[in-house]
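All the exercises in this workshop are built on plain-text protein records. Sequence and backbone structure share a record, each on its own labelled line. The question running through the whole workshop is how a given chain folds. The record below serves as our worked example for the rest of this section.
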Amino acid sequence: MDRPTTQPTLLADLGGTNVRLALADTASATPLMMDSVRRYRVKDFDTLADAIRQYFIDTGHTASHAIIAAAGRIANGETVQITNNPWNVSAHGLQSELGLESVRLVNDFAAQGMSIPLLQKNQLEPVGPALLPEHDQKSSQTFVVMGPGTGLGVAGLLLRYGHWIVLETEGGHAGFAAHTAEDVEILHRLNARFGRVSNERMICGNGLVNLYLALADMAGQRSEEYTPEDITARATDASDPLCVRTVETLAGIFGSVAGDLVLSLGGWDGVYLTGGVLKILMPWLKHGGFRERFEAKGRFRDTMEHVPTIAITHPEPGLLGAAALAVLDAGRALPSQH
């Protein structure tokens, strides 16, 4: 592992299932040290501090500063209860426990959003007909960043005359809006199971199971005890028509929700798609109902047809965005974008 010229900053991308840890060299044009990336299962550790200690043992590194991107709402910049795992993280508690000089907590999709200034064109893939968006450093632009993993993350990304600003949200927990007769039937069944139904109930790994069970009931078919991985595998090899229908349905609902977020946040300059489940969904996003439902916004259809939807293909966008924040915290400017 190449050693940075200054002590590196510890980075963490903490989701519901995994925590990814890495180091950033804030003086480098490519601040994320890719050879430092390690992934650990949340269930294998009692606390984030325990996972970090193991990381330091595994890599032989130490750090005095840390940026923790966590899947949950950051309360007063100090604490976060991870939405889909049992850990509760305190910035000051972690700082004291590990003897660090500083710990900064950010929402995981704030970090995902901040990866975008550092991404290269070959790390982005258009979904639909629109071209890659150009970042205009001399004007005002607004983007949406969203995607499914263990949950559904949403952020706004603002470029204001050369300055990048990320808007932390919990938009994945907004209530699901049915757009079609089938949506209404799905909503009816999930409402009976969960009460309130959020977008995240469908657009995430477990959302595949929720949709599968609803569609099986609607078709009068016996459902199997499939995991999300079972459903996507059977959809990919076309061995189970109901699994194919499930993934197609998720792709369409994903498109509707993405389009709604453009309207809500004014993200006319583009939607960046990311998240741990995105790679599996890509064939259906590119060839299914994603763009049709994204654009189907009534009087705004003509406008929506020109809003690009772009998949982030970088393997670690959360860590890359945390590295970008580390660069800014160190008082340095981000390198030129793609």
About this structure: Residues 241-265 form the longest helix (25 residues).
